[in-house]
Design brief:
Structural class: alpha+beta
Order of helices and strands: HEEEHEEEE
Oligomer: single chain
Number of domains: 1
Distance between the termini: 38 Å
Helix content: 10-25%
Shape: globular
Number of strands: 7
Number of helices: 2
Strand content: 35-45%
Amino acid sequence: MRYWAIILVLLAGCDTPSRTYRDVPVSRISVDQSVFDIRVKDNRAEAIRINAEWAPRLSSVKPRAIAAIEQVSGCKVKRMRGDQAMMIADLKCKGSPVPQPPKQLSCEMHATPLVGSDSELSYDIDCVEVST
């Protein structure tokens, strides 16, 4: 019985923000099959993927996380680190303060190969604000 209590406590922390982002308002955004909680503070953002996906790797989740962070923050992602569940991004915001993000967005991402490139993709993202 005691082991089940420990497991439940550990699972409850799966979508908890890190200490730096604990008091920051959250925006929930879905990009294709991934759902993220995004918190933006200063020129950094934290993305926590909160949905279940079958054995994702950072390389498969990263483009959706970047699109989600850029859509919520209005800034470009300069650098990202982390794993497939929690990512921290450094933002480049063109001299303006980071805007207050909307609460919930639902997005679709469309990737097309860049002309003359076999490995690079260009992404278009269409988002709508979801009323709660």
